[in-house]
Write a structure and sequence with these properties.
286 residues; alpha+beta; 15-stranded antiparallel beta sheet; 5 helices; 15 strands; 16% helix; elongated
């Protein structure tokens, strides 16, 4: 999910640079096609004829999923609408969705005037007001064949994307899972809180290195008949290894198969299993 949004922002930033040339010809990519002909890159064939700096669409974008959890996702459509231009840069409404409705994300993107002018703003693409939903059953690559289904609902997502380094720098937001089921069992109430890991520090009182960027922190809670879990995970957007702290409560309604797996793979402290201190989401055994 994180990589989907990040790559969408990257494509948008590169797209706007290319369309700056089209602005000379009444702001339409159709005019640029008349002049450049076959010299345009292949991906530009999926641009809508009216695409320009003011508005436009790009069809059939394929975004590779992140950190071993998401396979190559479905073809997505990227649409942008110019909102306004201020002293600090340009603002756009951006939508990322697929025709089948498996991915539907929206955000406001600010392309600022950085130290290098308009292109310098790519180093700090700010997005805010992010919301939407992702159908996990359609795009989630379940570890060990255990299916996770449901609609991941996102609200109040905001952050910064570095278009030159091609990575997220900061992300905050709230998430919940509607109709969530794991291995066929109802998960009940699932809540996700994403925070800027650099500002949050390392949990030991350190405030973190905000100039470095790229760290994330997530609070996860699951309260259902089959599973009761409370955890904190932290990592970096450019790394599949994450640190974990948390517990899975002993529960008489938990499936016996789950209990056997937890007894074999996790240590127990009283009436709860203790989550491992670290996890590599790209490890073969995950």
């Amino acid at each position: 999910m994180i990589r989907v949004a990040a790559r969408g922002l990257l494509i948008l930033s590169g797209l706007l640079i290319g369309l700056a040339l089209a602005a000379v010809f009444e702001g339409r990519v159709s005019h640029l096609r008349q002049i450049a002909g076959d010299h345009l890159p292949a991906w530009s064939a999926n641009l809508s004829p009216d695409a320009g700096l003011g508005q436009g669409s790009l069809r059939g974008v394929r975004l590779q999923g992140g950190m071993g959890l998401l396979p190559d996702g479905p073809p997505l459509d990227l649409h942008w609408d110019f909102i306004g231009l201020g002293l600090s840069g340009a603002d756009y409404n951006v939508e990322i969705r697929d025709p089948a409705g498996q991915v539907d994300l929206r955000a406001r993107v600010h392309l600022g005037f950085g130290a290098g002018g308009f292109l310098g703003g790519l180093q700090a693409l700010e997005f805010s007001g992010g919301e939407g939903e992702i159908d996990l059953g359609a795009i989630y690559a379940a570890p060990r064949g255990l299916a996770l289904t449901g609609r991941l609902l996102l609200v109040d997502a905001a952050g910064v994307f570095d278009g030159t380094a091609r990575r997220l720098v900061r992300l905050n937001g709230l998430g919940s899972l509607a109709e969530g089921r794991f291995d066929g069992f109802d998960l009940g109430r699932v809540r996700l809180v994403l925070k800027d890991g650099d500002s949050a520090g390392d949990g030991s009182g350190n405030s973190g290195n905000q100039s470095d960027g790229g760290a994330w922190l997530a609070d996860i809670s699951v309260s259902g008949a089959a599973l009761i879990l409370q955890a904190e995970a932290r990592g970096r957007f450019d790394d599949s290894v994450l640190a974990l702290t948390g517990r899975i409560a002993e529960n008489p309604d938990m499936p016996e198969g789950w209990q056997r797996v937890l007894n074999q793979s996790l240590s127990k402290d009283g009436a709860a299993w203790v989550l491992p201190e670290g996890m590599d989401l790209q490890a073969p055994g995950f």
